[in-house]
Please model this.
Amino acid sequence: MLVAVLMLMQGAPLDCADPYTQMAMNRCAVLEFQESDAELNAQWKLTAAEMKRRDAEPIDDGRPGYFETLLAAQRAWIAYRDTHCTAEGYYARGGSMESLLVSTCMTDLTKQRTRDLRDLITQ
Model:
């Protein structure tokens, strides 16, 4: 019986404007993260291109270039985001709400990082 209910729920349309089950909330949170991640990736391309353009103007001060610095920061940020949000999920460790907490955290941090990347090239 439970398997049949779960199969029906997976095929049911998802209303993220008003999710009413934990499963729906979890699925909607993942979809929202995926959307914010796509926006981040689009902004990354713009910011990376600008940093590479800036690197084309030679500065001989012995420090890493714009893009090299940006890439190192992005890699560190991804590691931070993933581990920080895993820790936030531990508020409901092992429970059905854990993935909601992780996805929501990742969405929030990803949206902020997208703004940060945009600010790097608009200031």
Q: What stands out?
A: Confidence is low (pLDDT under 50) at residues 1-8. The two ends are 58 Å apart (CA to CA). DSSP finds four helices and no strands in the chain.
